[in-house]
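Memo to structure team: turn this sequence into structure tokens by end of day. - J.P.
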Amino acid sequence: MANNFPSDTDPVRAEIAAAAARMIAEDGTDYGTAKRKAAQQILGDVKVRGDLLPDNAQVEEEVRIYNELFFSETQPARLLHLRKLAMQIMTELLEFRPHLTGAVLNGTAGEHSDIHLQLFGDSPKDVEIYLLNKNIRFETSETRHFKGASRKVETVSFIWHNEGIHLALYETDDLRGALKPVSGAGRTERADINFVRALIAESGFE
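Reply from structure team:
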């Protein structure tokens, strides 16, 4: 039988999650860095046990709460703006099967959030050539593959309409199985343009 009683680590984990959420919402800190800094603030300069760190889903929920408490008048409009911009660039890149991911998809995007897309095609070079032909200057880096931390994919980043855009360039075969729901989370990790269009329509401010 499962034990549903809270453990003695739950309050500490919740405190770390809330502190990390504040950094993410206020400063745009990434989840990993925010959790490490929050743990250091609360526990000091000690080696933090893994079971004391909240998972990203818990931190994400805290970001939602923080946004509702402190940014309820501005965050919804900011989110809608980013989703509309994401749909525009997805339309431009439709041949590369674009999928939206990250804070703009899950609804926690704020003032410091960028737009993160995953593209699926035959070669990263095809995307680079496309951008160069559009006179878009970009920088390249690597992003963790969603199938495992040991795998990396090329990512191109640039500024478009004064917003940061990051395109993670996957192979076509990576799309197989990529659209499976997150186990036990009940949420979508990536979404195609039709899904994004529906999110915008749901807002009632098309």
